[in-house]
Design goal:
Structural class of chain B: mainly beta
Oligomer: heterodimer
Number of helices of chain A: 0
Order of helices and strands of chain B: EEEEEEEEEEE
Helix content of chain A: under 10%
Largest sheet of chain A: 7 strands, mixed
Mean pLDDT of chain B: 94
Structural class of chain A: mainly beta
Radius of gyration of chain A: 13 Å
Number of helices of chain B: 0
Shape of chain A: globular
Distance between the termini of chain B: 40 Å
Radius of gyration of chain B: 14 Å
Chain lengths: 113, 112
Amino acid sequence: DTAVSQTPKYLVTQMGNDKSIKCEQNLGHDTMYWYKQDSKKFLKIMFSYNNKELIINETVPNRFSPKSPDKAHLNLHINSLELGDSAVYFCASSRGHNNQPQHFGDGTRLSIL
Amino acid sequence: QKEVEQNSGPLSVPEGAIASLNCTYSDRGSQSFFWYRQYSGKSPELIMFIYSNGDKEDGRFTAQLNKASQYVSLLIRDSQPSDSATYLCAVQSSGGSYIPTFGRGTSLIVHP
């Protein structure tokens, strides 16, 4: 059973489009995260939710909007996609938000044409 | 700005040797330290975590933490070609901001 699952695995789309990435975890964790990993492999946190409440919102363009319908799901919607949004987006979860190890999904590779 | 620094490498070691990966961090309030392994094209997976000064061993892996000097290291004994990957150091503070900060990773190559 996949612990943290993201869909889709690959996303190829045109500049200016709107797209969503979905994430679900079946670990019973309270905290979920979105990370962006650029071409230089730098993993940068974007958002974190704890029990459906937004607790981390890093300096991310407001074209990115996370949504957590329940603590097992954290989706990411991106409006007006730009070339610089091309990256691998990882979802992760942890038991709590305080000093807990994280479990990562397989990633979504987003390519903007 | 909290920073986590790692030598990008690549660090090349022969099979059977000890690989030593180092990480320094800027935030003295950091409380928890994690090592993740990431194979090319895959997601990060947790190898070790350590909270207290000293050594923590798990199989061939040993994490070492020195809060006074603000560094954490990962030793891999009896390195295998399958250990070839990028190793990411992550640091998290407590008390207000729980933002996990990752280093840029060290590429390890274990050659037969």
